[in-house]
Amino acid sequence: MWGETATAFARCFQPNLSYLPLFEGHTWYGSLVTELPLFPLPNIVVFPGMTLPLFIFEERYKRMVRLCVEQNQRRLVIVLAKQGASVSDSGVHEICYDVGSYADILSVAENPDGTFHILTHGQERCRVAVSRSESVGAGHAPLHFTRNLPYPLARDDPNLERLAAWDALEVFRSYSEVFFPTEVLEQIESALPDDLLFQASFICANLRAPAEARQRMLEAPSLIARFGAAQETMQALLKAHRRDAQDAGGALDEEGAEPSSGSGGTPQA
């Protein structure tokens, strides 16, 4: 799962990534495109700058990839599937959230068995509003499409944003010291983007937090709020880690304690 280690995300976080040869002309028509393929995924929340490789094996999503290539249209929408929902279900309103992310396909490799390996690059967030569903054959769930509804992240005073980023990064460094191997810490500093939007993405995608918590960060109304949500999540994770460590230490103390004499003397410490 993405976010397991900073090393993995540093390798797959490229905010200024150039497109690979795939679509003729590399054209993205922006607001001229009225609907986009919808791709619900479990445990995945995509943030701007995040590069995500995917294995495509379901019939409806193989159809999605073929459509993108045939129509010279690289963009789709990735959205988090709700916990306990099956992405094989035909209904979509019940299984996924109302806010997802644009993702641009960078490369496509078709396998001999008709499956695909694709590489996608996370863009800004968007709203999810299913416009239609397309059948891909009997016995298969349909491919859903969503209206093209940008949902820009609100931006505030740059000085306030920098302050929020500074605070969140300080907590992130403390978080990294606890949850990441020592050799990863220097890589985090070297991989940290300069742009504040991508700094927030770097933090959010690296947290070992439930997908629902990362979804709240994606849905935050502003960049400052996104930094704040990430900071609150990290502080909660650090607090839980300290509590678990204390509980484990107490259990070890009890196991290693000398047995009491039972004579009513001073209790053994």
TrEMBL record:
Residues 240-269 are annotated as: Disordered. The keyword Signal does not apply. This is Peptidase S16 lon domain protein. Keywords: Membrane, Transmembrane, Transmembrane helix. Pfam families: LON_substr_bdg. The lineage of its organism: Bacteria, Thermotogati, Deinococcota, Deinococci, Trueperales. InterPro entries: Lon_prtase_N (IPR003111), Lon_prtase_N_sf (IPR046336), PUA-like_sf (IPR015947). The chain crosses the membrane at residues 38-57. PANTHER family: ATP-DEPENDENT PROTEASE LA (LON) DOMAIN PROTEIN (PTHR46732:SF8). Residues 36-238 form the Lon N-terminal domain.
